[in-house]
Amino acid sequence: MPANLRPWIVPALLAGLVIFLLVGSLRSALFAQQTVSGLANGGIYASLGVALVLIYRATQVINFAQGAIATFTTYVAWQFMQWGLGYWGAFVITLCVAFAGGIAIQLVAIRPVERRGNVLTVVIASIGVLIAVEGAVGWIWGPEIRFMPSAFPVRTYHVGGVAFSLQDLGTIGVSIASVVVLWALFQFTKLGLAMRAAALRPNAARLVGVRVSWMLSFGWGLAAVLGAIAGMMAAASPSVLLQPNMMDGVLIYAFAAAVLGGLESPLGAVIGGLAIGAMLNLLSSYVSWVTPQLLLPAAFVVMLTVLLVKPSGLFGRTRVHRV
Amino acid sequence: MKRRWFELGLIAAAALVVAVMPFLLSNYNRSQGATVAVYLIAILGLNIVTGYTGQISIGHGAFMAIGGYTTAILTHNHGWNDVATLPIALAIGFGAGVIVGLPALRFHGAYLALLTFALALAVPQLAKNYSHFTGGTEGLALPTHTGLWLYGLAWATATVVFVLTWVLLRGRTGRAFRAVRDSEIAAASSGIGLALHKTLAFGVSAAFASVAGSIYVLINNFVNPDVFGLTLSLYILIGAVVGGLGSLWGVVVGAAFVQLLPIGLTSSNAVSSEAVPVVFGAIVIVVMALLPQGSAVILGGIAGLPNRFRRSHSSYPPPRMEAR
Amino acid sequence: MRALHGVTLEVDEGQIVALLGANGAGKTTTLRAVSGTVRREGEVTYDGKSLTHQGPETVARLGIAHVPEGRGTFSELTVWENLRLGAITRRGSIDEDLKRVLTFFPWLEKRKSQQAGTLSGGEQQMLAIARAMMQRPRMLLIDEPSLGLAPLVVTEIFRILRDLNEREGTTVLLVEQNARNSLAVSNHAYVLETGRVAYSGTSDELAQHEAIRRSYLGY
User: Fold this and answer.
1) Predicted confidence band at B319 (pLDDT cuts at 50, 70, 90)?
2) Is C72 within 8 Å of A211 when comparing Cβ atoms?
3) Is A154 in contact with A21 (CB distance < 8 Å)?
4) ipTM of the shown complex
5) Which fold has domain B25-307?
6) Is residue A274 less than 8 Å (CB to CB) from chain C?
7) Is residue A317 part of a domain?
8) Fewer CB within 10 Å, N side or C side of chain C?
9) What is the mean pLDDT of residues A288-306?
């Protein structure tokens, strides 16, 4: 493959995917419906994936607890609703709780470990957080499955003979909106610039007075907020039930999304998440031997393939590793 | 020389305790004791691949599942004698380990952790799916044995595996493994056959985990996908880490910790059974913060600590996970 | 690993002080000790305040700007973002500061959306100095600004440093291997050798005293 064509492979693949989805949707109502509900799942994977990328970019740490933290904050939202708060009120309060919780976890569980250990010990610490937080959910609320109300009233819209659920459209909207808001925060605010600088070159950032360790904590806080959004959307969706281990599978799909994006590109995670969501849903609808239980292994295969073929993901720059 | 005798004396004493234990314990506790041996075998396996060649695996529960289901399917569906399935599980586990280890050569730490984590969750799903063989979500039932028999089998196997590991690690292979872990670049340039050794480590590691899974299934006398869920993989990793990566005796500590601590906490009523994971997770974090090398440090740093896991002297952000 | 073995420096306000010496003499480490980038024993006093236990973030906020070896520019960010980062810890408008910086480096205006990593070496060095200026520093620590740059560019940079010192009154602690240019622009000079101060005197003295110059600076 001539070198000057290489940078066009990924955009071409993406364009091909978009065309495939559009054409299929126009030709078949079922296809359109499955694409949209797949994209809704994809929005959830994308949100959680961006959370993972946020933390990885800044600290090279893969936060295995991201899903568990999302689960915990979702239960918090559920609890507020049980206490009588309306959906959006509970939503906003939960985001604040998530932000504080993310910072708290970073301060209590991660920072002390970072100080003395290396990345492996921090990863293991994040596994400790995973166990503790999932355990806390089971301890506080019990293992029974609960019902999470949805943000959106149960309504369907009919466009050209195709029925789209408001739930799906709303999930896509909220996921994309949250990522866009985050992007705007990073691009246009002073705090965002400081956080980017801290993630890119922590030593140089210190020299201009940026308190890099605070920026890292904020990063965890923001990641937890994204996770909370992902969790609340997930719990309301038909395929995920509100139970202590509910985000375990979603975390894998989020990993796959992040890996597709190269672990360092939020845009890549978003596109990766949406693509995975749509494709997996279409696969299970149209290919008879693809059962729901095979979707997780499928995601594993996707991750493995990407890492074998283009480890820097679709959007990353290839880092050369010589031995 | 004195230290030698002291160590041998300790080993003899420990062996005596293990041998006498089952006669003092109730049947239930015997199976708990047997489970400690199971963890011991699995953690020994993990230690080889993570502690000695530095390849992170959070998915050893998947290899245990392979061994467990092999034993279950052969005994349940084909009427095999259960002990006879152990070598088969060993061989299949080795094969699986090599299959995983080959692509793993190309991934550095972060990605390998990710992939093995995904593997840990994906394999039980496969078991659920191909229910024709595996009994699906309901699983398969297995013949029962006395607690004493199980205890004996488990600890006999554990002893064999432990000695095997010890021999393996002392010889040339062990030195080669350590060289790989401490500096891949140096190891590669000295012609150690990097790929061969890393894959070999994975294979052996998976083989051990597989056998552990077989015995685990025999102890519980049934198998279903949830038995080998994510929690199991995580607990094996924790056992290896709390015990001390790169330390053989630390593995014993780790295995005991993982199996007995939750039981100790609940039976002493200090903590309700739902709160056990919280305590567990907290302990992991504390250990990582205070004693990243695990209990091996307390045990006297026997196997020498890996360079990669030693803290470099800088008070600022952790070094990037090195490319492997 | 200990790089310095008892270095005592004094820098008076408004002066340009040159820190000279061969590779490995400890010049960079000395600067890092001042800005707090490395651990230090002993004392660092600034304007009567002790900096000994402060980290680089605090030191920067106290008015010391450090342009490190390798410039410390954020290659992935734009020129404008690099400049904004200089003033990141201050509230309020930075327009005044930007205007002032542009009088020294007018060409930055046109390049403001360009990625900093795509600038030439000399331009990046000037961007680094501009960024430091955005911090409104009372003292500027600058490490080997001439490294890898063409002679014309080097002259330009030293001219800017002298300008900065004269117009803004910024104190400068300059680490350099290029002794000739440094002595021409500075008031006082120290020569470091394997982590110790080997010579201290006015720059004129050092420049004119052939014997000392030759033994410590080799020319």
Assistant:
1) very low
2) no
3) no
4) 0.90
5) ABC transporter involved in vitamin B12 uptake, BtuC (1.10.3470)
6) no
7) no
8) N
9) 88
